[in-house]
Write a structure and sequence with these properties.
The complex is a heterodimer of chains A (about 110) and B (about 120). By secondary structure, chain A is mainly beta. Helix content of chain A is about 0%, strand content about 55%. In chain A, strands 2, 4, 5, 9, 10 and 11 form a six-stranded mixed beta sheet that branches. A five-stranded antiparallel beta sheet of chain A has the order 1-3-8-7-6, with no helix packed on it. The relative contact order of chain A is 0.35. Classes of the chains: A mainly beta (about 110), B mainly beta (about 120).
Chain lengths: ~110, ~120
């Protein structure tokens, strides 16, 4: 079956670094996505990885290891506005997204 | 209109009633999707459309129907609402099927409560 696993909740301190892990099992693989969703709002796109390695975008980076079925989202210099849920999604061979339940990130001052 | 618009934003509905959630995009995207989001679960695909005139079933299609008469509009209909359809519904679009341009654009969501 297809499955995406990520932690339910994480807590971090303002100014620190946090890594949100995601493991995936999909029928075929056409990439791994990360989305950010603030409470009561729509998800917004953060990153897309299809090749192994690290993609960096400002304070946010995303890593993929296809052989391990593993990805992580790294957030640096945390700000209070980074408090949100982070959704991991794998794209299968039919180009359909399989979504994790999301990781709620709580930032404390 | 800028982006993708859903209506209504919130609705309380009696069980057994028919309800249509509207979704309109002005980005000329080929692909459109309807998801439901429930606490503790990931987004689940209800129906999708890769291009105008075609639709497909997602993971949880039962009790829902869609149509795609043109590029811009993708309404979702609940023929006879049941309490288990209480959820937040998101419409999304992408430039190509599967969103393999790297990005899905989401509407703001429609919160539906079925009593």
């Amino acid at each position: 079956g297809q499955n995406i696993d990520q932690p339910t909740e994480m807590t971090a301190t303002e100014g620190a670094i946090v890594q949100i892990n995601c493991t995936y099992q999909t029928s075929g693989f056409n990439g791994l996505f990360w989305y950010q969703q603030h409470a009561g709002e729509a998800p917004t796109f953060l990153s897309y990885n299809v090749l192994d390695g690290l993609e960096e975008k400002g304070r946010f980076s995303s890593f993929l290891s296809r052989s391990k079925g593993y990805s992580y989202l790294l957030l640096k210099e945390l700000q209070m506005k980074d408090s949100a849920s982070y959704l991991c999604a794998g794209m299968d061979s039919n180009y359909q997204l399989i979504w994790g339940a999301g990781t709620k990130l709580i930032i404390k001052p | 209109i800028a982006g993708i618009t859903q209506a209504p934003t919130s609705q309380i509905l009696a069980a057994g009633r028919r309800m249509t959630l509207r979704c309109t995009q002005d980005m000329r995207h080929n692909a459109m999707y309807w998801y439901r989001q429930d606490l503790g679960l990931g987004l689940r695909l209800i129906h999708y459309s890769n291009t105008a005139g075609t639709t497909g079933k997602g993971e949880v299609p039962d009790g829902y129907s869609v149509s795609r008469a043109n590029t811009d509009d993708f309404p979702l209909t609940l023929a006879s609402a049941v309490p288990s359809q209480t959820s937040v519904y998101f419409c999304a679009s992408s430039g190509s099927p599967g969103g393999n341009t790297g990005e899905l654009f989401f509407g703001e969501g429609s919160r539906l409560t079925v009593l």
